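Standup notes
- DV: blocked on the single-chain target, sequence here:
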Amino acid sequence: MTEVATARRSRITPEREAELYEAVLDLLREVGYDALTMDAVAARTRSSKATLYRQWGGKPELVARAIRHNKPGRAGDIDTGSLRGDFHAIASREDDCTMEQNSALMRGLFMAVHTNPDLLRAFRELLVEPEMEEFRVLLRRAVDRGEVRADCPALEYVVHMLIGAFATRALIDDQPPTQDFLISYIDAVVLPALGLPTG
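- DV (later): unblocked, structure below
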């Protein structure tokens, strides 16, 4: 059998890939990153561990890709004609229930990232850098439209501000992030930092 035929036979369909990612996220919510094993993923998804390693290399990449796959579309694809509209559209992509689930999941993963260099590397390569680039697209459009000055010092901190709001909501207010909270935060903090009106 040729290598091409072998590769074709082992390719996972998009539907199967989505099913595997959903199982990984379910297991993460149930047991956390440290207790998650490739054996458990294989058993949950009725697949071989060899297939999982062949497709994803290991647990860090599989988890990072599952998180990325779970994100509701690409931020750079949103173009409402204004940066405020773009930010509001991003905040409205997930309902409050989903946002609460994802917030709890990410809190657990942030702790694991600090003690696992391979997970940190996978997160940076597969989540952080792609997300940063998506936001750069939005911000470049806003600069090109003349909404934001190109030399605005807050431009490089937009993602920090948004992640900070999402991540610290539970810590400071003992509540999950919600659409209303994020939209209010965008209007009160992010847009003024960029020199934009909020209304």
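- Follow-up: Confidence is low (pLDDT under 50) at residues 1-9.
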